[in-house]
Amino acid sequence: xxxxxxxxxxxxxxxxxxxxxxxxxxxxxxxxxxxxxxxxxxxxxxxxxxxxxxxxxxxxxxxxxxxxxxxxxxxxxxxxxxxxxxxxxxxxxxxxxxxxxxxxxxxxxxxxxxxxxxxxxxxxxxxxxxxxxxxxxxxxxxxxxxxxxxxxxxxxxxxxxxxxxxxxxxxxxxxxxxxxxxxxxxxxxxxxxxxxxxxxxxxxxxxxxxxxxxxxxxxxxxxxxxxxxxxxxxxxxxxxxxxxxxxxxxxxxxxxxxxxxxxxxxxxxxxxxxxxxxxxxxxxxxxxxxxxxxxxxxxxxxxxxxxxxxxxxxxxxxxxxxxxxxxxxxxxxxxxxxxxxxxxxxxxxxxxxxxxxxxxxxxxxxxxxxxxxxxxxxxxxxxxxxxxxxxxxxxxxxxxxxxxxxxxxxxxxxxxxxxxxxxxxxxxxxxxxxxxxxxxxxxxxxxxxxxxxxxxxxxxxxxxxxxxxxxxxxxxxxxxxxxxxxxxxxxxxxxxxxxxxxxxxxxxxxxxxxxxxxxxxxxxxxxxxxxxxxxxxxxxxxxxxxxxx
Length: 549
Fold this sequence. Notes:
Elements: H1 2-17, E1 24-34, E2 40-48, E3 54-58, E4 69-72, E5 77-80, E6 82-87, H2 89-97, E7 99-100, H3 107-120, E8 127-132, H4 134-137, H5 145-149, E9 157-161, E10 166-169, H6 171-177, E11 189-193, E12 199-205, H7 209-212, H8 220-236, E13 239-247, H9 249-260, E14 267-272, H10 275-282, E15 295-303, H11 333-345, E16 349-354, H12 357-370, E17 381-384, E18 402-405, H13 407-421, H14 432-437, E19 441-444, H15 455-464, H16 484-490, H17 493-498, E20 516-519, H18 528-532, E21 536-541, E22 544-548
Parallel strand pairs: 1-4, 1-5, 6-13, 7-8, 8-9, 13-14, 14-15, 15-16, 16-17, 17-18, 18-19
Antiparallel strand pairs: 1-2, 2-3, 5-20, 9-10, 10-12, 11-12, 20-21, 21-22
């Protein structure tokens, strides 16, 4: 009996003294990571445990530990999973399931696609879609309901502009919504009207609600399908984590259903659509991280102005191509500060949309003021920060303010920005290098579905200021390029930091989640055009292969 006890006791001691082998080694890679100083480091092997936490990065001459599993990376490049710091997840998903006009280059081409979509989907009660841009069409004006009526008159049509700041309706949609010549404008929005004062079919910013209120709500099954489509699209681009801007309660419940079912693949840092939703989801403060660091409500997204394309961006001086307008204010200065204070009281983070120079000035001033009251690590976020007066650029270095910017907007907007503002007002336009020089963190994203959620195209633009064709030669306002290291950081470690995810994911270092890509080329050894052609061969999140072989 004593011998049996000693044998069992000895076996128990051995069990606890010997670490359980449940690690995985991914070896023979050209690994690139970002160290605690934000500098690029290289490695050739990565080890993570059964919870998907990195335990080691290994250099070529380091001894390889014994692990349960070993994977040959075949000499491929390993990068941290890309983090998109500004997306609209459900808009992206529904965009995969509805009409996409983003590739159209003329009004007639768009109308042809709308007609074909309606013919191919006769059972749909509404024709919904997005992506049109009258600037790309060379139209010189907004499209009209009458033009939509030519191709679809029997059913309502409701189409979102590429920048999400205007919608285009046909006459049937306006009729169902009860919009007439007597319908007044909405504060913070504009109904585009014809020469007789009747709505012509385009609704800007908050005026969109006049028609969108009549659109049937998506069912839970539709939302689940849209979210699944969004996740697959993001993974296709190598995006493993996102900051979702303007999360509704229905969106949050969609994410939770996916998490509960084990179908939440990407990581989501969420910003509520309004204060009520923020408090309903978070209660006394930001939520804890859910589903192994897959989901967290960080705070709230606020809007100060609209977009340049719709002339809703709030400017210090009138638009060059519309001298009677300085844009459309969506929040007054007092209301902005009240909402920021309401969030800060309970430690919610605030992300504020500001595109025009007047909007950015007001936001930066509000941050200056509130930082005197609310101390600590607030990480105030300015979303877009597209046009900043040169005198205000240095203010991004104060109070830990983060500039959440989207490189692809620069190449999409450069000609339009010149038309809207003129050359002399572009010194602070899409000023990435100046923001970094001021001492601010730079978090890069796409604003998808406004732009493709392609971080490698974003890196290519960030280091070159040129489009997919290499234009303009030498780069548009090339003094605002950033280097490759800064661009990669902005799409990984600093994008994680911007969402209070630092230490959890964003860098391939011990203690963080094993979120990584295996790709076919090294962005530090490739031209901008070659970086755009990067092939995502495998995507791993939390030590699990979620896309690829």
